[in-house]
Amino acid sequence: MSVTPQPLRIIPGEALDFYLGQGYYRMHQDLFTCRFLPIEGELYTVHWLRLRLADVQYGPTQRRLLRLNAPFSVTIQPFQLTPELEELYARYRRNISFEAPDTVEAFLLAGATHNVFRTEVLAVRDEGRLIAAGIFDRGARTLAGIMNFYDPAYRKNSLGKYLMLLKLEHARRCGHVYYYPGYLVNNYPKFDYKLFPCLAATEVFDCRRSEWQPFAWDAVREQSAELLAGWQAKEEWEQDPE
Fold it and tell me: Where are the alpha helices (DSSP H) in 115-191?
């Protein structure tokens, strides 16, 4: 399911806030949502997340990561597709174990010549050298994290998680209410890192009732079981509608 905002030159911030709040997210130049993700022949359920920024509190692990990476410089500027970004992403992509688009351009624009989102780039540099980039979209009172990638040589610095914290802090400075890091997948831990910033401030979207609730694995498992049961019943009915 997707919403294509083609008549608009820029999606208004309030509109992005609304769709994020309904469990939608960016894909290329569209807004979409989904409930299922097929992985290696198995069907998994998708669960969208957001953080209540006013309730975020860091623990020792988050504070330690901020101290570890404090020597690096950080800048934020409007998104521009540059060779520097593409080169960093290419190094990152060669060292990951999951499928990802070939380029930053393919991830964000997919051939489009105009970006309808208010997109910015958070750049982390080590003595001038770009070592990590976090790309995000801004609404009126929300921030949606879209991409994080980094130099594999800095793996010990957990730069992906560090970029999440930097985005969160930027959202708080902007006076935003929510930070949307994307989704996790039930019974597929590769996406669980999105719970890193602050579990107590994290909410999960219940697509059955179109409402957000405090994150709990029991709630996720309950949603997952109901969604999969509904999918199986639909499949069985389509195969034998009588």
Answer: 159-173
